[in-house]
Amino acid sequence: MSLALPHLLSFLFLVLLLPYFTRAQTSKNVSLGSSLTADNKDSYWAAPKGEFAFGFQKIGMEGYLLAIWFNKIPEKTIVWSANRDNLVPGGSKVELTKDGKFVLNDPTGNEIWKVDFGSRVAYAAMLDSGNFVLVNQDSSLWWESFNYLTDTILPTQTMNQSSKLVARYSERNYSKGKFQFTLQSDGNLVLETRAFPLDSSNAAYWSSETVSSGYQVVFNQSGSIYLIAKNGSMVNSITSNAGSTQDFYQRAILEYDGVLRHYVYPKSSTNSPKIRRWPMAWSSLSTFIPSNICKDIVEGTGGGACGFNSYCKLGDDQRPNCLCPDGYTFVDPDDVMKGCKPNFLQQSCDKALPETELFYFQPMLNTDWPLSDYEHFQHRTEDWCRKACLDDCFCAVAIFRNGDCWKKKFPVSNGRMDSSVGGKALIKIRKDNSTSKPSCADSKKKDHSTLILIGSALLSGSVFLNLLLFLAAFLLVFRSNNSKPLNPVMPGMNLQSFTYEELREATNGFKEELGSGAFATVYKGVLKSEDRYPVAVKKLNNMVRESDMEFTAEVRAIGRTNHRNLVQLLGFCNEGQHRLLVYEFMSNGSLASFLFGGSRPNWYQRMRIALGTARGLCYLHEECSTQTIHCDIKPQNILLDDSFTARISDFGLAKLLKTDQTRTTTGIRGTKGYVAPEWFRNIPVTIKVDVYSFGILFLELVCCRRSFEAEAHDEDQMILADWAYDCYKDRKLELLVENDEEALNEKKRMEKYVMIALWCIQEDPSLRPTMKKVVQMMEGAVEVSVPPDPSSFISSM
């Protein structure tokens, strides 16, 4: 597309004047011998109007960037940096030396970054355009930051052939990341993935299709970004006119998720508390580049937009969300784009043990992992497709769509969930390690199947009698040579029975206390085995004086539970007055310590913990053969494993405690702040008491604060549940997550989660959803309606 002649002449005139505009601005000169030191908050060089600054910016707790940023808006947005791959500690110094260097040194004097200009430079200056320059003695530019791109371009800045923007690694990690925006030497402008550690074998996921015609990318003063040919004619428009730079601050950035976005910020709102973040100039989906990165990235040898075994789903804010399918967790919860790993042992290829009965399929609509298939079948049924994948130990996922069946190998890549994909993905998951679906009877079924297999093999052999004689002889010899009996295993399950002395030795005399409550104290221990397996030993204090048989029956019921979001019971001790339970050890402690500790956990971790807790409660309420009411859901009873996955503890203990401790029929059971109202009234206690407690816990996770804070500045904010409803009713939900940028970025999702929590804490138990419905609402399978005032039930009584 070419411009009309008058516009073309005006455009060429503007292009010719760009260097003049850049260089003719008044500036506050930085003289030779000047320096800045990291740690000094007021140590920077500002542009004449004060809109841009050059100096040090602290990045979390990691160190400092030598950077250029917007200096007049609340969010000091960085647009350029010298040391993005090598943060420096406090005390580092940048100096414009008199002997011909512009150098960044760490506190020990090590050189981190430099520009060596000899004796030709007279001074440096931060210009109003956002360009930092070194000026020669003849007033010409010797060096300018505009020529050394990072991830951002500004008005009046250009990109030449072979130049590129390289996205940062993550939102808070400014080092080079996984995507780049490149004007290739052949004139084609592309968005592409980066192959680490080299920029070779890159996969383009958007192209201007301007081979042999693209010459330069221009970001003009009117806010338009476009590609021009060598003769100055426009060959491709990248963004439309967003408004004059006189009224707006503007920037275009290739963000860490691989999408190029153009932002504007009204200069008139620099002091407005209502505008905290940059609104986007592009308002419609079609103007994003690319429009849907979840679908557009298809790498032949890479993991796609979100990494191996994960899938990408476009959010309400048009940003890609990286998620794990059921049965999988993030490799690194702090970097979800690294992909996911299975939580279970994959299917054995041993023909003698095919394990087909040990797996099931979790269906996912409108989901696919292209390019991971190794077999394709046509004109088949879904049942045929399931069986084909189940019988194939190499098959991790099957895709069924319109009579076609694709088998996918591990790891799967380029995952995406979108309504345009269609069909159904069938995720193969091992039953005894899954995050949902299997019942408590699965472990029985597994043991029963194994016994049948072994028994059949023995009975079919002619050596069966000889084998029996051999085993009998072995047992006689073993008993005569071993005075100490083995720890018995409870029949039908893998619970081990320990002696009190064994657990006293494992805990080093109950030395290291992990926590204590009204009815038990928990100690860290190490089982006596080759791998020194760490455990948590719970010493029960206030026990019901029941028979050994009754205690064993209750422990057996707890031991039959098996779910990804429950703490697994490993064994027990029932010896005289000593009653102890042995659980797997959770390395990251309780949610209480994690949530209310020194630093705030990120939004995505908190919501992942909320969903995991909901799934665990759903299992206890509806999927286990013996329905279990926990009665004491609170942050202290949600533990976190190595990958910060939520694991519910202390379930099933109500029947093991004294009546005055449990009060499951006549009194209150639970913890203040989390107790459902029906405990105080003549109303039957049901699973809905756990739903109420979860609702309070959910609000704590959303807002990252305790349910009751006596020290709150405003009396209306002391009780979180009441304050949350007031904020929801007044459309002021941002007050609940003030200063939490991640949550503010997820405003619609945050509102949905608050609505779910408000349904959970309804005073009328019949209005509360089941935990199954809570999970469905959180996952987006069920719409969330407007919740009523939670206390309306009280006022009507």
Strand order of the largest sheet: 35-39-40-38-37-36
- Let me know the CATH homologous superfamily of the largest domain: Transferase(Phosphotransferase) domain 1
| Overall 3D shape | globular
pLDDT averaged residue by residue: 81
Unreliable stretches covering 5 or more consecutive residues: 1-26, 282-286, 434-466, 476-493, 657-668
**Count of individual helical segments:** 16
Organism: Castanea mollissima (Chinese chestnut)
Catalytic activity: L-seryl-[protein] + ATP = O-phospho-L-seryl-[protein] + ADP + H(+); L-threonyl-[protein] + ATP = O-phospho-L-threonyl-[protein] + ADP + H(+)
GO molecular function, one term: carbohydrate binding
Pfam families: B_lectin (PF01453), Pkinase (PF00069)
